[in-house]
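Q: A reviewer asked whether we had any structural model of the full assembly, not just the individual parts. We don't, so I'm hoping you can provide one. Inputs are below.
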Amino acid sequence: MDDLKKKRNKDYNDYVKQVTPTHSLPLNMCKAFLVGGIICIIGQAITNFCLNADMEKDVAGGWTSLILILCSVLLTGLNIYPSIAKFGGAGALVPITGFANSVAAPAIEYQKEGQVFGIGCKIFTIAGPVILYGIFSSWVLGLIYYILTKVGVF
Amino acid sequence: MEQIIGKQSVEFENPAHIIAGASIVGKKEGEGPLGSLFDLVGDDYLFGEKTWELAEGALQREAAQIAIGKAKLESWQIRYVFSGDLLEQIIATSFGLENLQIPLFGIYGACSTVGEGLSLASMIVSGGFARYVLAIASSHFGSAEKQFRFPLGYANQRPLSTTYTVTGSGAFVLAKEGGKCKIAGITSGKVVDFGVEDSMNMGACMAPAAGDTIYQNFIDFNRSPQDYDKIITGDLGYVGQEILIKLLKDKGFDISQQHTDCGIEIYDRETQDTHSGGSGCGCAATTLSAYILPKIESGEWKKVLFVPTGALMSKISFNEGESVPGIAHGVVLEHC
Amino acid sequence: MDYIISFLVGGAICALIQILMEKTKLMPGRIMVILVCTGAILGAIGVFEPFAEFGKAGATVPLLGFGNLLWKGVKAAVDEAGFIGIFQGGFKASAVGISSALVFGYLSSLIFKPKMKK
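A: Here is a predicted structure for the entire assembly that you could use as a starting point for your response.
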């Protein structure tokens, strides 16, 4: 692309940034805070219940994830979770409920394309990267840890 | 009379007439400011079909049948149909129009499809190659979101610059004579890419193309904005409108008095939460049929420059980091 | 008391990510990846555990916690089984999260139909 075109494009994109409206950030931050906070309170309640039932910390954590995920999937199916995210933005995306929604939504949408090629292939359309890069980064860190143990640092 | 004028335009010696227009939309569009003007408002987004894609096909089929009926014709009398939609391999068009059994030219101009269809159809009719031709375009929120963005159940927050894909189809029957609106000329668009990579800001992606086509129309026809009662773009939305007016002002043309946009007209931004406005092939097509065409036929607007705009990216081009190019096809509509 | 802390910590993390969402044009998928990887890294450098002690569910419910969970799993597996543990630990620890999302997600597709956005 020649320089004149590059300059024109750059000037244009700078101008677009100026005139494109954005949501009010402070307001959206508050909404995200509220929604995210509430989801964490619910998580805390589940954890406390499990701990009081004499479960191990890790098991309690597992149950917390399980129940939050189940709730999120149900809310997705009932077409309620999208409204929560419209209001709360990151408050609905960041907790594990956001991950669950990103698995349930394609599953529900792609059912028309069949079990194998629809749901089967596309259930991880949105969440796939989370699993791939989550496992991969923990693998890299694990490798480094392993090497350091061998070398005697740990 | 020389019909080939300027760089990108045609001024027809025997203009084609739009003898009938039909529009069919979904619930949200029916609840908008133009709600009562559409021929049909569906209350089930599946329109009796199994999938969003087939529903969109049904929209095209219904709109075509209503238009053919309004023109007091039978489908066997229509020689060609020009149609397109947003879906991969334009399946809504192929599956939707199969039972009409009319020779089909499937076209893709993204949201500018109805402009492309009307341009080609008018050339065929004016050139004497067919007596009656149909031009159709459609879009569906469900099928478009699924293809370009996310499955419907996915919870995300949309920026203020986004537009909302219209669920709807518009169909037009063109003939040599007999209508109250004629296609006096066309200015066809080239691909225009100013390097915008934000697929959430379609208005900014397409405004340069609209500006380019409108500017060329003024130059080719030796006209200025005041020569038109209205200059109406397809789906630039509020954000794109502001940008377009500035782009043309920089070139010496002020269209602020004449300009409006189908995406702005079709929804009520206060109550319908549609951010920058409507979009999709169906936006321009249905608004033309329901809102613009009647005003031209009544003589309230004598001369209108109709410029549907399209964003020519695909999911793959976007993932591969490419920008979003735009295109805009201008159609000069006149009362007759 | 721990409810208040969870609320504040969880809310704060979400509010910060909201800034990221508005100021950059990052898509949700990328943001989730950033959260998971950051959680794993913070876990590895030993910062996340004390933070989770303090923040309780406010730290573990966000995807940051999921990333940390992956790291903890790998570390435990390496301690126990050596080299092969690097490959075992991630999925082992995240088993509940991933299985439940998959299973419930799939079951929901049998019960629910796609609906238009409100």
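A: Points you may want to mention in the reply: The mean pLDDT of chain B is 96. The longest strand of chain B covers residues 9-25.
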